[in-house]
Write a structure and sequence with these properties.
CATH architecture of one domain: 3-Layer(aba) Sandwich
Strand order of the largest sheet: 3-2-1-4-5-6-10
CATH superfamily of one domain: NAD(P)-binding Rossmann-like Domain
Largest sheet: 7 strands, parallel
Radius of gyration: 20 Å
Number of helices: 12
Shape: globular
CATH class of one domain: Alpha Beta
Number of strands: 13
CATH topology of one domain: Rossmann fold
């Protein structure tokens, strides 16, 4: 913690360092004078040298393998848990996210690490119209049950508390908004859009017929949304690794907000305002589109604002995001376009 003497030569173990936050985080750890060694583990191949990471040691492994987790965290001063499956089969995600995360939490407690840093999500608050806005950390998690990503994020915060109860491990929990940036394209590559107007319900098709020409169309319920740059999330995580401030929960979001129409504009697509997007209309739409169940759930949640207050992160951690919402949204789109993941006519493979 900040009032204690510095802890030079920290050994940091990281699960999921190859994801949308992971690479930016490893690069931030590389710059930290307090960090001596970084151990990373994820399921995909990764060469730290290809990113100029001299502190990082990497092994392939699975969070479902408790023995592999035990080896990873053995002797680590700080454990950072980033591994999480966002899109995919609900049952598979439950096994990886809940069982895998519990393995990490319990192994950290058994290893006697000083700190555990966990990336939760704004989704842990749940998408409830009754939530007071802006959302503050003391509201606590109350995930939306029919949106498994939200429900699992909320459940895991309880699992974390249970796993560390009676130990001296300090826990930092971050609840970032949507994460963006040039190497974080999930917002763009997973946003549901209308590519073929003839496939959608007539009530929506009537709106689409007003457009001057065909092309990708995003439906916009007008809900304000937040985004945060991966580099800014990485900065917050490093502060926790170094023991800045006090343990606890912190909201992370850039200055400003955006809507789905702003995203469509950056993509060069079109948007249709649908201020009264009814649940039954949404359900009819997603059944006819080639969207995964998790993407369908995101359409539902886009109707409920989950704008957060980030004062605590700024005041307690001294966190100052360097990118606002507009810049982050633009960087996200430009990165996805540069990687060939999305074009003016839609997503690659769609």
């Amino acid at each position: 913690m900040s009032e204690n003497a510095p802890e030079p030569g920290l050994t940091v173990a990281v699960t999921g360092p190859t994801g949308e936050i992971g690479i930016a985080f490893l690069q931030a750890l590389e710059r930290s004078e307090r960090v001596a060694v970084v151990r990373g583990m994820a399921r995909r191949p990764f060469d730290p040298g290809s990113k100029g990471l001299s502190k990082t040691e990497y092994v392939q492994g699975d969070v479902l393998d408790r023995e592999a987790i035990d080896r990873l965290v053995d002797g680590a001063d700080v454990v950072v848990h980033l591994a999480f499956l966002i899109f995919g089969d609900p049952e598979q995600s439950r096994e990886i996210n809940l069982t895998g995360s519990r393995n990490v939490f319990e192994a950290t407690a058994a290893a006697g690490s000083k700190r555990l840093v966990y990336t939760s999500s704004v989704a842990a608050y749940g998408f409830h119209a009754s939530n007071p806005l802006p959302l503050h950390e003391d509201l606590g998690p109350a995930g939306t049950e029919d949106f498994y990503y939200s429900a699992q994020k909320a459940e895991l915060e309880a699992t974390l508390r249970e796993s560390l109860e009676g130990t001296e491990v300090e826990a930092y929990v971050f609840r970032p908004s949507i994460v963006g940036g040039p190497d974080s394209p999930a917002l763009v590559t997973n946003v549901p859009y209308v590519g073929t107007p003839s496939l959608v319900p007539s009530a929506v098709r009537a709106l689409l017929d007003r457009l001057p020409q065909p092309g990708p169309v995003i439906l916009d319920p007008g809900t304000p949304m937040q985004i945060v740059h991966a580099d800014d999330v990485a900065d917050a995580l490093v502060k926790a690794v170094e023991g800045v401030g006090v343990p606890g929960c912190y909201n992370l979001a850039a200055e400003g907000e955006f809507t789905m129409s702003d995203l469509a504009r950056e993509l060069g697509w079109r948007s249709v305002p649908v201020p009264d997007l009814a649940v039954d209309l949404t359900a009819a739409l997603v059944k006819r589109l080639p969207a995964m169940p998790s993407q369908a759930a995101w359409i539902q949640t886009a109707r409920i604002s989950v704008v957060m207050d980030t004062t605590r992160a700024r005041d307690v951690l001294g966190w100052q995001p360097r990118h606002d919402a507009t810049a982050t949204l633009r960087a996200t789109v430009e990165g996805a376009q540069a990687a060939g993941l999305v074009t003016a006519t839609g997503r690659r493979g769609s």
